[in-house]
Amino acid sequence: MKREMWKETPFSVKLLLTTSFMMNLGFYALIPYLTLYLTGSIGWTLAMAGLVLSVRQFSQQGFAFLGGVMADAFGYKGAMVLGMAVRAVGFAMFAFCTETWHFFIAAILSGLGGALFDPAGSAAFAILTPDSIRKEVFAFRNVLGNIAVVGSQIVGTALSAVDFTYLSLFAGAIFGVNALVSFFFLSPISATNTRHSIWESMFTVIRDKRFVRFTFILMGYYYLNMQVFLTIPLLVEHVTHSKTSVGIVLSAMSLFVILFQMKVTQWLEGYPHRLTLIGIGTLVMGVGLFLFTFADSLWMLLIDVFLFALGTMIAVPNLVDVVPRFAPKDLVGAYYGFNGYSIAIGGSLGQVAGGWVYDVGLKLQAAWLPWTICLAVGLLVAWMLHLMEQDTFKLGNDLTKIAQP
């Protein structure tokens, strides 16, 4: 981020950036290695491991709409602090799971915590950040998130090599510390929704057909995005026969974003068609995943991962910036929460169906199958968002000006 933009960034936003960085560190240290732990030490199938991950994902995003509405009504700081504390308990609980149902309880608690802090945090970013630098702040948050991912792979690899218990407790501690920091140092962020009841807020979002359509299309984006947590680590280990390579590849993906995200954002700054950019980014991600079909070495994996990362660099800043442009200013949390259904459904499909298709591909000796589906999904999302962009302009709407008073 440019120095002058950093000076324009309020202290509260800087603190939110710090907590976002720490939460990414804890989350990405645990989740990729949870898959390997469940399929390795516990002996589950990939599909079963994917089910646990999808339960965590769906319990988070499935309740995020309600969490966002409540944050709009009762205040963002309280929702964030409570959510971080609940996730701290859920992540730490993985250290003590011995039965199948224990893992599902831990996954549900982890998800419910996210349902509270995620829409509240995103709304707080959007509300507290000046409009003139919001897109750059979101891009910088993506950079910080990926710096955290690099650090998380070092921590995750080291702790999982000793004992998964330590990794789980570390991840839980990160969220616990963030809850305390936010409670003591983050200024109260007052509720913005003083006009509507919780039910009125929810119905207002549901009646916004354009936004519902946008949320539905994004399910395809998150189908592709969730492969980072499931099929990509398995493929890397299969190709290289090394768990260390999993950390190298995931760290490289983050390093690419760290090095190029701000440049990509600057290059695309003058391009006004935000929905089309999200579609292009998703398509590039699909191409990167499809090329995994031909990956037979660590270098090939890194090239494919670069394309995947480039797609996220194009899509993510526009994706998070578009949501508050749909939303009335007093319902930003509700809109972010409802948008979470794209992650809930698309992410769950990416983890359950993605894992199942990967297993089927291995049985049928059709290694191309899961990655070809990813390419088809990327093409479909790009086409649907392009059509939506055209429809938006036909109706005389412009997403650069759509934010409502």
From TrEMBL:
Pfam families on file: MFS_1
GO molecular function annotations of the record: transmembrane transporter activity
Entry-linked InterPro entries: MFS, MFS_dom, MFS_trans_sf, MFS_Transporters, Tet-R_TetA/multi-R_MdtG-like
Primary location recorded for the protein, binned into one broad class: membrane
Membrane-topology descriptor: Multi-pass membrane protein
Regions annotated as coiled coil: none
The keyword Ligase is annotated on this UniProt entry: no
Keyword Cell membrane attached: yes
A single Gene Ontology CC term: plasma membrane
Keywords: Cell membrane, Membrane, Transmembrane, Transmembrane helix, Transport
Protein name, per record: MFS transporter
